[in-house]
Amino acid sequence: MNNPESSIRAASCADDYDPDSMPVAKAREFIARFLTPVAVIERLHIRAALGRVLAADIVSPLDVPSHDNSAMDGYAVRFADLKADGEVTLSVAGTAFAGVPFNGAVNAGTCVRIMTGAVVPPGSDTIVMQEHVKAAGDKVTIGGGHRQNQNLRRAGEDLKTGQVALKRGELLRPAEIGLIASLGVGEIAVYRKLRVAFFSTGDELRSIGTPLGAGQIYDSNRYTIHGMLTRLGCEVIDMGVVCDDPKLLEQAFNDAAHCADVVITSGGVSVGEADFVKELLERMGEVVFWKIAMKPGRPLAYGRIAGAHFFGLPGNPVSVMVTFYQFVRDALLKLGGRDPLPPLPTFRVPCTSALKKAPGRTEFQRGVLTQDAAGIWSVRVTGEQGSGILRSMTEANCFIILPTDQGNVAAGSLVEVEVMEGVV
Ligand code: AMP
Ligand code: MG
Question: Tell me, what CATH number does 282's domain have?
Fold first, then answer.
């Protein structure tokens, strides 16, 4: 972990730090400087390792494939026996099956029937597809036009003994799990799951199962945060709702920081509320409060408390999700050991809606990508874009990302979209 002494505030002075208008990319870069992976390693069977991050390179203990083998069902022949343009008839000396090699060699004038994956018998150097021969009894007739070494898979052509098959920091998806199994390796080193504690702040919040009084609302942020963290493979510690009371908040921050690698809160960082939270966090650690030049999700706090990373997200439900995906997601993946972390793909499509946008902030509007009868994709905006309208997130399948300087967007213009599938 980073040394908490490595000052978050001092680092900020070095690069035109302006907490009142922090561009999204700058805030991301700033946070990235304080992230080092949680170095705790555990060993797991590969079946249990899906979604985890490799903590050590996987070095191949063998050649893959381990033998020269056939890529086709056909006949293993000596290329020298074939004619460039003309037919030749060879006698079939036997059969090589996958897993049951032909016990012998291919001598001049002979060939061996061979199945896909079977070891290429000594003496032969070329495989002729069964569709390209005329077979009659134990003889086959083969025409011209073949290449030496065709349809052969060479030992070690996929991986050689000692070669790094997978690098530390890679996410274990089904393909990686399969590749490790193909090396005969059953147990691997992975990083332990990141522990993330979170709570909601606000006197107006009630939990499910409690009737609502005047002016009260149900706490939804804890549920979206729980879901987003679970999807990222974190170990989640739900600490409930905490009232806007400095004593209770201090206790909650303390408890959270002592049981987790990362603490996430929602609410309490907007102007007015921020002041006493600021005071509290200043005493407890090092936290910077930003007004990010983005919409939704302007206020954001980031720092360290008692050795834990801290993200203070805004209170509005859509702002919580957008700031989580723009800042917290990447940070958690890096802390969890992911390296490198490829950027999420975005692409440009025509937008069928006219979009309202004032220059000055990056906007993450919620969009619906659809394909027309001709197979062409376009995007429209989900209705109202208020930062409290969580329905805009449930209806959306993408974010429409509008850059800082962009003004209103006319219907039919190209816009940048980031697909939510696989991300949210
Ligand atoms: P705040 O940032 O605390 O001023 O909150 C901004 C808005 O988000 C207010 O309307 C809050 O009622 C609302 N809000 C804050 N926390 C939650 C929560 N956990 N669930 C739903 N709405 C919330
Ligand atoms: Mg509040």
Answer: 3.40.980.10
What per-residue confidence (pLDDT) applies to 10? 61
Q: How many structural domains is the chain composed of?
A: 4
> Does some domain include residue 116?
yes
pLDDT at residue 9 tops 60? yes
What are the DSSP E strand ranges found in 62-142? 69-70, 74-77, 88-96, 110-114, 126-129, 133-136, 139-142
User: Is 19 contained in some domain?
Assistant: no
H helices of 140-245, in order, are: 174-182, 221-231
User: Which of 335, 364, 388 is the last residue in one of the domains?
Assistant: 335
Q: What is the pLDDT of residues 225-281, one digit of tens each?
A: 999 999 999 999 999 999 999 999 999 999 999 999 999 999 998 888 888 888 899
pLDDT tens figures, 319-369: 999 999 999 999 999 999 999 998 899 999 999 999 999 999 999 999 999
Taking the C-alpha atoms of residue 218 and residue 209, their distance in angstroms, rounded to an integer, is: 9
- Residue 132: DSSP 8-state: G
CATH number at residue 116: 2.170.190.11
**What pLDDT score was predicted for residue 20?**
77
Question: Same domain, yes or no, for 315 and 233?
Answer: yes
pTM: 0.90
Tokens 């199962």 sit on residue: 209
202 lines ligand 1 (CB under 6 A): yes
Task: Answer whether 296 contacts ligand 1 (Cβ < 6 A).
Answer: no
Residues 273 and 370 in one domain: no
pLDDT of residue 21: 85
Of 208, 217, 291, best ligand 1 pocket probe by most atoms within 8 Å of the beta carbon: 217
Ligand 1 atom closest to residue 244's alpha carbon, by position in its atom list:
3
Indicate the pairing of strand 308-313 with strand 262-266. Answer: parallel
